[in-house]
From TrEMBL:
Belongs to the ARV1 family. It is found in: Endoplasmic reticulum membrane. Coiled coil: none annotated. This is Protein ARV. The gene is Arv1. It comes from Atlantisia rogersi. Mediator of sterol homeostasis involved in sterol uptake, trafficking and distribution into membranes.
Length: 200
């Protein structure tokens, strides 16, 4: 699966594998996707959506209003957080749908079976781990927070591109085309929400 006689990462420490994955090295991605038994794709996807929902919830003006500090139930009643989670979920779904549609249209032979779709979905969910950096970026808020958030978005897109490339054994151009189409579809959903008045 690693396209070499031997997967060199078998002998490496997990910390080194993680560092190489953060550096978006194709061999590290191949090792993680094909030669390990990682089964946290769904949990990681949900946690990334929670991070994104939390960021959006903090940016809402309603959530920053000063209320009684003794009101502990307030946090459980924050329906805006659940709304932001739903919006983030729909945007993520439309992004993934755009990627799948583009790849299926350009290279239908690559995604013939359900296992091909599932493997690509797992790879995309795993490669979105950069969204976990949203929480520290918000906690350590400073003047450069918008720039940090933009860098996190770019990092996640680069990771997604590398995951598509490694999973389907493609060149660099087609994964980026799929990601651009996914972003177009995601932004279309964002515009739809804004027109309907659902997004703040």
């Amino acid at each position: 699966s690693c396209q070499k006689p031997v997967d060199k990462y078998i002998e490496y420490d997990p910390v080194i594998i993680l560092i190489n994955a953060v550096l978006c090295k194709a061999q590290a991605y191949r090792h993680i996707l094909f030669n390990t038994k990682i089964n946290i794709h769904g949990k990681l996807g949900i946690f990334c959506l929670l991070c994104e929902a939390y960021l959006r919830w903090l940016q809402l003006q309603d959530s920053s209003q000063n209320t009684d500090p003794d009101d502990l139930i307030r946090y459980a009643k924050e329906w805006d957080f659940y709304r932001m989670f739903g919006i983030a979920s729909l945007e993520q779904t439309s992004f993934l749908l755009g990627i799948f549609l583009t790849l299926w249209w350009m290279k239908p032979e690559m995604l013939k079976t359900n296992s091909d779709f599932i493997l690509l979905l797992k790879a995309l969910l795993l490669s979105s781990y950069g969204k976990l950096l949203l929480i520290p970026a918000v906690i350590w808020e400073h003047d450069y927070t918008p720039l940090c958030l933009a860098f996190i978005k770019v990092f996640v897109l680069i990771s997604n591109s590398q995951a598509i490339r490694v999973t389907l054994n493609l060149n660099r151009m087609l994964p980026w085309l799929a990601i651009i189409f996914g972003l177009v579809l995601e932004n279309g959903v964002v515009c739809l929400f804004q027109k309907m008045g659902w997004d703040a």
